């Protein structure tokens, strides 16, 4: 989690722990505010990584953001995890492809271009989706330009991308594999400036596909017919 004053980062906490999200989240928020000498009532907006990613983590994060926004009567905005990952690549004019492992032979991905001139925002060329990596790599190849890859999906697929795209695949030695809260906060701020819907009622998870349990239930129902 992170706290911004304008575009200046005041504080950021990062924990690489996949369990006990619900138990740790609110105490960490309180600690972040205390360390920054900020009261909850001073908060002006809240942003959250709304997905894709862990279904449990997304649900807890979005629910907490909605509760904060409702309780404090402030704007709330959901940020694509993929866009936040792309924000970590500052190179003007670059094609940027964030990658998350979606399992079942799929990845969550999208394609952005960093604008060449100030304010150097991100132009979305391919919207976020759950896709098979093979056909998606072939689609990326048609751009005929170097593409900077980032995200934890590189843990599994860096070698495949290097082979499939050859010299077009730019694989940084130290890519931003985790989605930093500071980038989520920055993306959220920019979305609010652009007039993005900001009511907690409209803040919803961006799963991109059905949860595994729901998919299996549908398959069982289909098999029972």
List keywords for this structure.
9 strands; Nucleotidyltransferase, domain 5; alpha/beta; 7 helices; 225 residues
Summarize the helices and strands and which ones pair or pack.
Elements: E1 2-5, E2 8-12, H1 21-36, E3 46-51, H2 55-72, E4 76-80, H3 81-87, E5 95-103, E6 106-114, E7 122-132, H4 133-141, E8 147-150, H5 154-165, E9 169-170, H6 181-193, H7 212-224
What do these coordinates show?
The protein has 225 residues and is of the alpha/beta class. The protein folds into 2 domains: 121 residues, Nucleotidyltransferase, domain 5; 82 residues, 2-Layer Sandwich (Nucleotidyltransferase, domain 5). It is 39% helix and 24% strand. It contains 7 helices and 9 strands. The strands form 3 sheets. Strands 7-6-5-8-9 form a 5-stranded mixed sheet, with helices on both faces. It has a two-stranded antiparallel ribbon with strand order 1-2. α3 crosses α6. The longest helix is centred in the N-terminal third of the chain and has 18 residues. The model has no long low-confidence stretch (mean pLDDT 89).
Quick structural summary:
Helix content is 39%, strand content 24%. The strands form three sheets. Strands 7-6-5-8-9 form a five-stranded mixed sheet, sandwiched between helices. It has a two-stranded antiparallel ribbon with strand order 1-2. It has helices at residues 21-36, 55-72, 81-87, 133-141, 154-165, 181-193, 212-224, and strands spanning 2-5, 8-12, 46-51, 76-80, 95-103, 106-114, 122-132, 147-150, 169-170.
> Cα distance, first to last residue?
46 Å
Query: CATH superfamily name of the largest domain?
Result: ATPase, nucleotide binding domain
What would CATH call the class of the largest domain? Answer: Alpha Beta
Q: What is Rg?
A: 18 Å
CATH architecture of the largest domain: 2-Layer Sandwich
Number of helices: 7
SSE string, helices as H and strands as E: EEHEHEHEEEHEHEHH
- Name the beta content range: 15-25%
- Find the structural class using helix and strand composition: alpha/beta
Helix content: 25-40%
Mean pLDDT: 89
| CATH topology value of the largest domain | Nucleotidyltransferase, domain 5
Q: Which spans have pLDDT < 50 for at least 5 consecutive residues?
A: none
Numbering strands along the chain, what is their spatial order in the largest sheet?
A: 7-6-5-8-9
């Amino acid at each position: 989690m992170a706290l911004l004053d304008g575009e200046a980062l005041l504080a950021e906490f990062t924990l690489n722990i996949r369990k006990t999200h619900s138990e740790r989240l609110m105490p960490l928020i309180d600690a972040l505010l205390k360390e920054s000498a900020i009261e909850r009532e001073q908060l002006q907006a809240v942003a959250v990584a709304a997905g894709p990613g862990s279904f449990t983590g997304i649900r807890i994060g979005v629910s907490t953001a909605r509760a904060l926004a409702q309780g404090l009567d402030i704007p709330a905005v959901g940020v694509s995890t993929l866009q936040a990952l792309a924000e970590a690549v500052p190179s003007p004019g670059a094609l940027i492809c964030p990658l998350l492992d979606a399992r079942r032979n799929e990845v969550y991905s999208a394609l952005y271009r960093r604008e060449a001139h100030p304010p150097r925002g991100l132009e979305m060329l391919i919207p976020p989706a759950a896709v098979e990596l093979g056909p998606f790599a072939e689609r990326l190849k048609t751009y005929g330009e170097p593409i900077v890859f980032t995200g934890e999906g590189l843990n599994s697929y860096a070698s495949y991308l290097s082979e499939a795209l050859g010299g077009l695949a730019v694989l940084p030695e130290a890519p931003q594999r985790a989605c930093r809260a500071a980038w989520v906060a920055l993306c959220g701020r920019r979305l609010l400036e652009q007039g993005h819907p900001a009511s907690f009622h409209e803040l919803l998870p961006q799963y991109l596909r059905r949860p595994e349990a729901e998919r299996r239930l549908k398959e069982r129902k289909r098999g029972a017919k």
